[in-house]
Sequence to fold (452 residues):
Amino acid sequence: MVGVTIKFTGSQVEELVKEPVVSFEVSEGCKDGDGVAGELCSIGVKTVSGKDIHLIYKSLNLEDPMQTNFAKEHGSFRVESTFYKVVAPLLEKLLQSRNYSTDLAQILPIPTHYSSEFYGKERNDDYICLEDLRPSGYKMVDKFAGLNFEEASIVLKKIAEFHAFTYLLIKWHGEQIFENELKEIRPFNEVEGATFAVVFTRAMQNTIQLIEKNNPILAEKLKSSLSISNVPKIREELPTTFKTDVKFFPVLTHGDLWVNNILLKYADGSNNPVDVKFIDFQLVRRGNIFEELQYFIFTSTTPELRKKHLQALLNTYYDSFQSTLKNLNFPGPANFTKGFFMDNFMECYLPGFKFLSFALPMQLGTPKNKVIEMMAGAAGPPAHGNEHSNGSVTETREEEPKSKSENNTTENDHEKFLAGFLMMLRVQMETSPRALQRFESVAQEMFDLGVL
Fold:
């Protein structure tokens, strides 16, 4: 976001904080490269009662039609608003009923929710308004450096607690909760799963093509080890989500748990993390712990850290999950032994690795606004020297789900969005040596472990 485009009146701010306001000041809420899915601004408020309130206000970025259409099509604000308005209160009520804690505000690893609304596709004024945690000492870790052992440990402890809370929620209310209160918090459906398979397939193909320029040996090893042209096979390998009720137990997953959606607080004058909060619950859904853990571990820690501390980190998660359910006086999942946990984490290594070709460009690649500027200043997109470089999805179309009408406007719009999105991913990766290097490092890690 460049500058602040949202304008507020005093009455609007008073409606957000639910009390009279003396003054307020609006400023930018993020910096370039933070990867925020929308427009973010910070609001500092002084109230008549003498409070200093710090807010973060997230809305649709109307200057980015592609992102806006995606958010509205997939209901990003609807899902996140449901999380804060429905899921969090349900969790607090349930934990209170089981005498878990008297200070529930400190138990859930989330910011205070002030207000949020979603209006459907016909309007563009969806928003989420939360507590800005930064003035309280919370901050992000450098996404290029990744988390250290202490930071990763406290994150895993907290996400294990959250998973245990939501496991209890699902078991206590039963699956009908997803037909009623949590109808917006659902797993990916078959169409979404097929779309993701196409995206993962093409993203992996593009990444291998880019690696081939500087590391042809690694590229050839990846080609011979991965299924990168068979969409249905990728579809079956990818999603631990779809295996939740076959092999795993359900929880609510954050859905996008990585460094930039994690805020850490440190002890005064030290590098010792003492608390953690999670933000951006736009992809929260019914899933399982392995889906969440693979995504977090691969996107937020380095191969060097995993080589030294992976076993200890996984132990932290497992022990926290089990102890939380014990403190809640609620039985854990059947047969969820530490051996089962460790074995299945390792079995999910390959799907976790394949996700990186999709995640790394957005997270560590060149910021999207910079790519747009680069492409606008050139005659066209960078030449990639390959017949697949146009970012289209034609070669996988035979295996994609087809609509009843080949001339369906919605499907054409979807394909255009998908082609543009894939092109953006490729250019973000191609123009970022750090993102490519991270992918190569993880690929080598997979070969060293015998996963590939």
